[in-house]
# Entry
Amino acid sequence: MRGNHATHRRQHGFTLIELMIVVAVVAILAAIGYPSYRDYVRRTHRAEGKSELMNAAALQEKFFSNNNTYTTDMTALGLDDTDPAITENAYYSVDAAACGGETIATCYVLTATAQGGQSDDSKCTSMTIDSRGTKGGAGAQCDCATATTCW
# Structure
């Protein structure tokens, strides 16, 4: 009886095969989940660019009412100490230019260009809004005709 009891000992811990299966499952879940997570983070960071563009557009209109012209100088709008202006978390730089075929006195286009880690956002590397309120965007995978990807 004594010898029979010794052969029925309980094992503790995991086998190498069980551990490797768990590692493989975790790796597969990470490979699927991480890109989706990064895409979500990039989309949420776009809010900073949109917000700064809307703020700059309001400041352009205020500048126009005081000076009867728009400006390409972001420091004149009071956005930042640099031109182009950098957003609060430095995900975008914001700059102004005259509309195509017009002068800055009558029409502006504000552009928020992704920078740093946000520049990996292939769906929306830049967002635009002009003095007419027309919104747009650019990116390798952007639905730029309708501006729905960025805005």
